[in-house]
Amino acid sequence: MKIIQDQISPLTKSITTLEQGLKKQDLRFLKSYKSIQMRAQLQCTPQDPKILSGVLIDVAKHLGNLKFRLWKKMLVIVNHTPVILEPNTSPSFLTLSDDLNSV
User: Fold this and answer.
1) Which of 2, 1, 12, 22 is nearest to 43 (CA)?
2) pLDDT of res. 10
């Protein structure tokens, strides 16, 4: 948190300087604007983030076989029920397979 506050402090000063210069409507401000802009860009250049150990996950382990693991868990929950086809009410073009698992 201290690091972020240290980075914000110069930016706040630059913003205050810019606001004061804009209020003055002074020619000196317009001449020095380029240098102010360059300083602001240098202060805002992104730095490479520090890599913390233990924050990256093993994607293959956690998401690689997700469908398969869900399917295995669903096998315990789902009950297989044989299909019953009522001959009197079913359309004539439907026929039931011998193992009673498909139409």
Assistant:
1) 12
2) 77
Structural domain boundaries of the chain?
A: 1-54
Distances (CA, A) of 45 to 7, 41, 53: 11, 6, 25
Query: How confident is residue 75, by pLDDT bands cut at 50, 70 and 90?
Result: confident
> CB neighbours of 95 closer than 8 A, spacing ≥ 6?
103
Q: How far is CA 21 from CA 13, 37, 68, 89, in A?
A: 12, 13, 64, 87
d(C-alpha 99, C-alpha 42), whole Å:
74
Q: How far apart are the first and last CA of the chain?
A: 65
Q: What is the pLDDT of residues 27-50, one digit of tens each?
A: 676 677 777 777 767 666 666 667
CA 47 to chain centre: 21
Give me the pLDDT at residue 43, please.
63
